[in-house]
Amino acid sequence: MEPSGVHVLVTGTAGFIGYHLAKRLVSRGYRVTGLDSINDYYDVELKYARLEQAGISSEQIFYNRQVSGGPDKRYQFIQLQLEDREAIFDLFARSNFDVVVNLAAQAGVRYSLTNPQAYVDCNITGFLSILEACRRHPVRNLIYASSSSVYGLNKKMPFSVGSNVDHPVSLYAASKKSNELMAHTYSHLFGIPTIGLRFFTVYGPWGRPDMALFIFTRAIFEGRPIEVFNHGKMERDFTYIDDIVTGIEKMIPQPPGPKHGWDPEHPDPSGSTAPYRLYNIGHNHPVRLTDFIGAIEKALGKKAIKKMMPIQPGDVEKTWADVTSLAEDFNYNPSTSVEEGIGHFVEWYRSYYGI
Q1: Where in the sequence numbering do the catalytic residues fall?
Q2: DSSP string, 204-253
Q3: Contact at 8 Å (CB) between 194 and 144?
Q4: What are φ and ψ of residue 52, in 5° steps?
Q5: Which of 11, 34, 311, 345 could lock onto 230 through a cystine, CB 3.0 to 4.6 A?
């Protein structure tokens, strides 16, 4: 599969991971169509700034109008909501996508406690639009975002894709588990090859303002206290954006088939007799929150004012990705240390905000 002959739809390209993936794929020679609703869950100007980096100006953008970006016009962008089913179907009908990478979602665990309907609309109804579009207009591969949040109450470490994930602790997590079940149904019934990726705390330049790295960096710069939940005893498998993008890029030309030796009497949740796979995509190296904050302080050259807080509803104490299957199937090898990755983020932050 030569990149120049492959048309990839990447949803969520005004978002953090989608922006970086689209940029990488265009640089590799793929034809890319980016899609995003550009909702106001966080700073819309940051979303427009990401699109500007891809050659798409905010003045060009109107709902359901496709525009070109970049000097060679291999990047197209369209503002659409996934739940706008007929518009999604029309886009697929005229575009002949070879591969779909669905990263668009209503993100955030805490936001799901107060705005549950947004998660049903985008993450469930919207994902159904993508599955139905792939059914009507078959693609070679559908890669979609799940989340480490699906592990919920599970405390068996490291988290394995072979483990039970039937005890989510937020509606966000439940919506992502639903995506995995929906994908399997469409893989089984209609032969759509699907790969679900359970992301583990992705960070880096152009990251989300609602994530800890962004929140802590801004507060420390401004001399404000930071809220450290679970009294700093949280651990996260922080994964740098370039490692994530490299992993996804390797999957694009390699759609899954039925899992060899899959046993229906002892079913492995990570595969099936259908062309279906689930993978953890993380760093496989959990970092204590206090150490993460220490790395930010070092990069900034400034100490944080810490306000210790109890754990919040919907949060889990620790995440740790077992990436064995991803390493075996795609030679996935995340290599960016937290210190290096935070350094890149702080450098970007200073440049973007002119500090």
Answers
A1: 172
A2: -TT--TTSHHHHHHHHHHHT-EEEEGGGGT-EE--EEHHHHHHHHHHHTT
A3: yes
A4: -60, -40
A5: 311
Please name the amino acid found at residue 319.
Answer: T
Residue bearing the bigger pLDDT, 330 or 1: 330
Q: How far apart are CA 15 and CA 41, in angstroms?
A: 11
Query: Concatenated DSSP letters for 76-125?
Result: EEEE--TT-HHHHHHHHHHH--SEEEE------TGGGGT-HHHHIIIIII
- Report how far apart the first and last C-alpha atoms of the chain are (Å, whole number): 44
Helix pair 212-222, 289-300: axis angle to 10 deg: 50
pLDDT score, position 71: 66
The number of helices, as runs of H, and strands, as runs of E, in the chain is: 11, 14
Whole-number Å distance between alpha carbons of 355 and 21: 27
Q: Tell me, what DSSP letter sits at residue 40? A: S
Check residue 271 and give left, alpha or beta (phi > 0: left; psi -120 to 50: alpha). beta
276-310 pLDDT, tens digit per residue, is 999 999 999 999 999 999 999 999 999 999 999 99
The region that residue 29 occupies, defined by phi over 0 for left and psi between -120 and 50 for alpha, beta otherwise, is: left
**Residue 18 parent element (H or E):** helix 16-28
Q: Which residues contact 244 (CB under 8 A, 6 or more apart)?
A: 17, 20, 199, 202, 281
Residues 130/179/20/329 CA torsion (nearest 10 deg)? -110
Beta-bridged to residue 69, according to DSSP, are: 75
b/e sequence 177-186, b meaning 16+ C-beta within 10 Å: bbbbebbbeb
Task: Say which residue the tokens 């602790």 belong to.
Answer: 169
The pTM of the full predicted model, rounded to 2 decimals, is 0.96
Residue type, 281: I
The answer to whether the beta carbons of residues 187 and 267 sit under 8 Å apart is no
* Cis check: omega of the bond before 158, within 30 degrees of 0: yes
Residue (of 180, 101, 185, 187) closest to 148 by Cα position = 180
Contact present, 48 and 14 (Cβ < 8 Å): yes
Taking a C-beta distance cutoff of 8 angstroms, is the pair 79, 61 a contact? Answer: yes
